[in-house]
Design a protein that fits this description.
- This protein is mainly α.
- The protein has one domain.
- It is about 55% helix and about 5% strand.
- It has eight helices and four strands.
- The strands form two sheets. The chain has a two-stranded parallel sheet with strand order 1-2.
- Helix 3 runs antiparallel to helix 4 and helix 4 runs antiparallel to helix 5.
- The chain is elongated, with a radius of gyration of 18 Å.
- The two termini are about 30 Å apart.
Length: about 180
Amino acid sequence: MPLTVLIVGAAVVLSLLRGGRFGRIAEADLRLTWLLFVGLALQLGVDAAAARGHLEGNDGYVLLLLSQLLVVGWTLANWWRPGMLLIFLGLALNAAVMAANGAMPVAPEAIEAIGLEGAEVPPGKHELMTEDTRLAVLADTWPLPPIRTIISIGDIVLAAGLIPLVHHLMTYRTPAERRGGPRVR
């Protein structure tokens, strides 16, 4: 999540420098936006519940997959937007490794690399990677010490899609503007 926030923040700054405006996002007529917000809210809820030790059994797994499916539904409803294919692929890669393991596996070496050696992985959303981890290449294995997070291939692919999507939304031109009509403010 820290990488996503950092990438979105950078994309916003770059878009503002290129003449983008926050008001343009509302004009872009995104479809089924509630799927995105409910999916993100579920993701944050799972994070908070896992951090506090409130998740039992596979509760976190079910909620996490549901959140992923909701956001995937939003990407499919808006598939023609720039970056959306990469966002979809990143989510699919993350969902595949979580579905195969019941949670997102995290490499113990990566935990040490960001300075959290000995820290417990909260159950429900993450689990420690072992020799039995399926699809380990898709797991959280890449440490980013400056932002104290660990990322996966899916996170990188998703982040790569966020940049063109944010820029597109912040610089969106209505159909009338594209035909040469006046710019809406």
